[in-house]
Amino acid sequence: MRHAVFPGGARFRPALCLGVAEACGDAQPAIAEAAAVSIELLHCASLVYDDLPCFDDAPIRRGHAAVHVAHGQELAILSGNALIVLAFDSLARAGAAQPPLLPGLLRVIARGVGSPAGICAGQAWESDAPPELGVYHRAKTGALFESAILAGAISGGGEPREWSGLGYRLGEAYQIADDLRDAYGRAELLGKPVGQDAVHARPSAVHALGMTGAVQRMSDLCDEVLARIPACEGRHELFDLIRSWSSKLLPQPRQGATAAISATS
């Protein structure tokens, strides 16, 4: 389990959860932290499964051996299961101080990882006939971003309905960037194999929109998110967080790949 969580990746999902909570007034900081931890543990569990031989068969994650390579498939599957349980246990322990918040938090976080429109659905579509690209991206990546934003709003004292939909747009932007990194990025910088979408014939924004179209779509989505951040006391700081994150999304092209990515950003 520790191998799956550390060293960490960008940790943007928990940072986004905490950023929204702070922007809304940070009414329950301990619960916001627990929600952020829960979301990151669920994300890490999904990566353990994503790397398994029955899915991507990826030997490297975050620059280190994938969990199943280091510890075997049996322990990898069990560690993923345990991380999911730990995620909800962490949230339940912190949420005991504010029981009225727990049902909403549990629901928005569970919705991001389950079915019919969470990570499980997105992963399943990689093994079945995928839907329209945006629907696939919404489930595979956007749903957990949406969970992070709504959980931040709930624990921070905001009105979650005002934040609805932002996470799906942000998650789609992130997934498009991931498609670009897979097509044009460098494995030694990303800490994971590249070219996996082509190998596994997965839906990809690069395939559907072309490089220039994918970069433009990602940029448009980020602009939409920034424009729709609700009025709140921490709006400026959250704006800066998202803008800083979005500026880092584009890959550094690997040798032999087109360098036009930077020209289109």
Residues in β-strands, percent: under 5%
* SS summary, helix count: 15
Assign an overall shape.
globular
Q: N-to-C SSE series?
A: HHHEEHHHHHHHHHHHH
What's the CATH H-level homologous superfamily?
Farnesyl Diphosphate Synthase
Mean pLDDT: 90
**CATH fold description:** Farnesyl Diphosphate Synthase
Tell me the layout of helices and strands.
Layout: H1 2-5, H2 12-23, H3 29-50, E1 60-61, E2 64-65, H4 67-71, H5 73-95, H6 102-113, H7 119-125, H8 133-156, H9 160-163, H10 166-184, H11 187-190, H12 196-199, H13 205-228, H14 235-246, H15 260-264
Antiparallel strand pairs: 1-2
Summary keywords:
265 residues, mainly alpha, Farnesyl Diphosphate Synthase, 15 helices, 2 strands, 2% strand
Kindly describe this structure:
By secondary structure, this protein is mainly alpha-helical. It has one domain (10-246): Farnesyl Diphosphate Synthase, CATH 1.10.600.10. The protein is built from 15 helices and 2 strands. The protein has helices at 2-5, 12-23, 29-50, 67-71, 73-95, 102-113, 119-125, 133-156, 160-163, 166-184, 187-190, 196-199, 205-228, 235-246, 260-264; strands spanning 60-61, 64-65. A two-stranded antiparallel ribbon has the order 1-2. A hairpin with a 2-residue loop joins strand 1 (60-61) and strand 2. The protein is globular and about 45 Å long. The relative contact order is 0.14.
